[in-house]
Amino acid sequence: MSPTAEQNVEGSMVAKEEVCYRFHSKEGREFTLSKSAAHLSVLVKQMVPDLGIDDDEEIKTMRPIPLINVGSEALALVVKWCEHHKTMPAWEEEKWWLNERDAEMRRWEREFITAMSPDQLFNVFSAANYMDIKCLFDKCAEAVADMARGKSVEEIREVWILENDFTPEEQEKMNNENPWTVVLRDIDIKARPDEF
């Protein structure tokens, strides 16, 4: 695949003349990401100069960058996000209130996030963390928090397929050492009495 392809993964459009980086997912599948979208990834911004690449011609001929911690499905979604956000200003982590998007962008982001299964969300969240894409990481973190809000520990374990590796004795010890556990459990029982 040419690094200046018109059509990218999952229908993300990249202008034909745009310079693109190439990446290999952990499965070895190749993806392209336009230079204008790649600025969202701190990993890419730091890696490219470290590789001694400083002009567009070198980018066009460079070997794909291996992303050994990012699966193909997650990378496809990351590329789609970045291409859609490539004209957005840099994400202000310390001044989160400056990151407000217009209504159309917020709608697109909400649809993008809610279309993912919990597994996909977790994998994209991990990929955004690995590639240091702050805007995507923050949106995934919000979604994970929303999924956990109001759920018991058991419900969260079920959603995220997490094993409870504590013995009953260890669990009891933790409950006794942390008095908030009892208070929060009582609040949860009062808030949802029909489930008990």
Automatic annotation (TrEMBL):
InterPro entries: SKP1, SKP1-like, SKP1-like_dim_sf, SKP1/BTB/POZ_sf, Skp1_comp_dimer, Skp1_comp_POZ
GO biological process: ubiquitin-dependent protein catabolic process
Keyword Cell inner membrane (UniProt): no
Domain SKP1 component dimerisation stretches: 134-180
Entry keyword Ligase: no
SMART domains (UniProt xref): Skp1
SKP1 component POZ domain: residues covered: 23-86
UniProt keywords, alphabetically: Ubl conjugation pathway
Protein name listed in UniProt: Skp1-related protein
The organism's taxonomic lineage, starting at the top: Eukaryota, Metazoa, Ecdysozoa, Nematoda, Chromadorea
